[in-house]
Amino acid sequence: MKIVIDAMGGDNAPREIIKGAIAALKKRKGFSLVFTGNEAVIAKELSLYSYDKSRVQVRHASEVITNDEAPTSAVRAKRDSSLVVGLKTLKEDTEAGAFISAGSTGALLTGGIMYIGRISGVKRPALCPAIPNVHGGITLLCDAGANADCKSEFLAQFAVMATAYAKAAYRMDNPKVGLLNNGTEDHKGDIMHQEAFALLKETRGINFVGNVEGRDLMFGDCDILVADGFSGNVALKSVEGCGKTVGAILKQEFTKAKIRYLIARKQINEVKNILDYNRHGGAILLGLKKTVVKAHGSSKASTVTATVLQAVDAVEGRTVEHITQMLFGSIEE
Amino acid sequence: MKIVIDAMGGDNAPREIIKGAIAALKKRKGFSLVFTGNEAVIAKELSLYSYDKSRVQVRHASEVITNDEAPTSAVRAKRDSSLVVGLKTLKEDTEAGAFISAGSTGALLTGGIMYIGRISGVKRPALCPAIPNVHGGITLLCDAGANADCKSEFLAQFAVMATAYAKAAYRMDNPKVGLLNNGTEDHKGDIMHQEAFALLKETRGINFVGNVEGRDLMFGDCDILVADGFSGNVALKSVEGCGKTVGAILKQEFTKAKIRYLIARKQINEVKNILDYNRHGGAILLGLKKTVVKAHGSSKASTVTATVLQAVDAVEGRTVEHITQMLFGSIEE
């Protein structure tokens, strides 16, 4: 099975992307890598590492889509970009299981729908990252930002898709599904969330446990948190902000107390580690015919490694087939 | 000037409410307190402290509204509740400047509109707490949860009301206004937030600086963060959750390293202190004809003290008059 990777997307591309992906090869067997991007640049980066050459391929792409470009027109115009070539490789190569990019989220969403396509019957694909909790585990947040404008029936599908993903890739048994809302009581929320609550209660095959507030995001009370893409994005970035904020305060407080820092270093670093939402990889895009994963734009090598392994898990667990079966009762091949 | 306080509302009422309010008397001159609630209970609590008796009054109220009750019917049915008696006192007593309650948010919102009334022309009153930032300062978040369903024109008014409040009570000069959105680029957001962005750009009298993401909530890049009440609530509770999460992780990590904790205690407590969003008081309800403040349900005495001083600042700064003037160009008396 092949994992295709956009070598040129992200703030730290190509160096950290290639370094992290190569490191993943040593952590797990049973897959190989296909890098897309400028062949000469990739070859130069690859020459820095020793690895099993039979497990690495390169597909040349002459262009790069940047974050400044309008997603739809960029995907249409730059057909030889590392992102589009990667998506085409995923689509055409029957051995390719997943595509990863740390580039433009908008371009990946648009390109994913355009080149890979939705599972027939899926209303809206959704981004589903794993956010850390205080117990060292994860909660899947779905949708974390693919769909700013949502209808309640989209949220019901997000719950089903994320449940299928949790079972397939994380081997969770009967994962608990919560609805991100502005209070825990059953009647809370705007009209759309009130409707979503009613729909989720009736949705078969999921284990809906009710409303969850922003303050409990990281306490692991549920395995899956369903959200509209707008407030889901606010929540995701708040978790990110929490890590950033705590890092900044710790730095500020311990700069004048270096010895104390050295003494408590192990514990302080563990705090930062638990809050680091990048350590669980990227955000999978659920609802497409093949696995597509968005890695954070600022991903360093360790995040890329985690993202590659996350993609391998998603493919090996047959996430797409599980989603299809849960939504429509049949396996699409 | 009198600050009226619901002595019976909140998880730690009446003890912490009365203790905190009495402590505020010693911190500032120029105001007195009116407690509403069961007279005998309040008298017993007051007997625990020594204070200037001329600055404290009690108004008996035989009932209490709980969080479990439906707000509208509770406010209508329980006319002799500490909350309703407090609101009536604020309305009728010309010396009363503000009312504070740590009780049911819904009942306070409903009762505030019913008994105090909106400033004429205000579309929706909004909750506006001060959230902490890493520099030790604050950002006003408006709306933090009064209006789950918002239209873009509400958000434009929130920006104006919060600007007036920032100037009046916090003495901010030309406060920077950001819009909580799912990205920093100008075109981001669902349709309502795109419209709000356009409206905020054209709104006179405010210093609009553009979109702000959830990750930058606590970095103090803006003085005022405008939000719809749904995602504003998610953001507020995420900040709260950040403090809770970090507290839980620190406890977990340092339980097995007590000596290290003792050595780094000062810095660790400062981290918790900066993240404590309660230390700046409660959430003022902007847009009413008099000042109403919601204190957090779990408020301890120190939070109540901060909330009383916050209410004094709001009244002394003539917040209501500033809002009226900024919105409609005239002072309502």
Could you please describe the fold and organization of this structure?
2 copies of one chain form a homodimer. An 11-stranded mixed sheet of chain A has the order 3-2-1-4-11-10-5-6-9-7-8, with helices on both faces. Chain A is globular and about 60 Å long. Chain A has helices at 15-27, 39-46, 71-77, 82-92, 105-116, 152-170, 191-202, 229-254, 258-275, 301-316, 319-328, and strands at residues 2-6, 32-37, 56-60, 96-101, 126-132, 138-142, 176-180, 207-212, 224-226, 283-286, 291-294. With 333 residues, the first copy, chain A, is an alpha/beta fold. The first copy, chain A, is built from 11 helices and 11 strands. In chain A, a hairpin with a 4-residue loop joins strand 10 (283-286) and strand 11 (291-294). The interface between A and B is large, with 53 and 53 residues.
Q: Tell me what portion of residues of chain A adopts beta-strand conformation.
A: 15-25%
- SS element count, helices of chain A: 11
Largest interface by Cβ-Cβ < 8 Å: A-B, 53 and 53 residues
Multimer state: homodimer
Q: How many E strands of chain A?
A: 11
Give the fraction of residues assigned to helices of chain A: 40-55%
Rg of chain A (CA only): 20 Å
**How is the main sheet of chain A built?**
11 strands, mixed
Question: What do the pLDDT scores of chain A average to?
Answer: 93
How far apart the termini of chain A lie comes to: 16 Å
Low-confidence runs of chain A (pLDDT<50, min 5 residues)?
Answer: none
Topology pattern of chain A, helix = H, strand = E: EHEHEHHEHEEHEHEEHHEEHH
Strand order, main sheet of chain A: write it out: 3-2-1-4-11-10-5-6-9-7-8
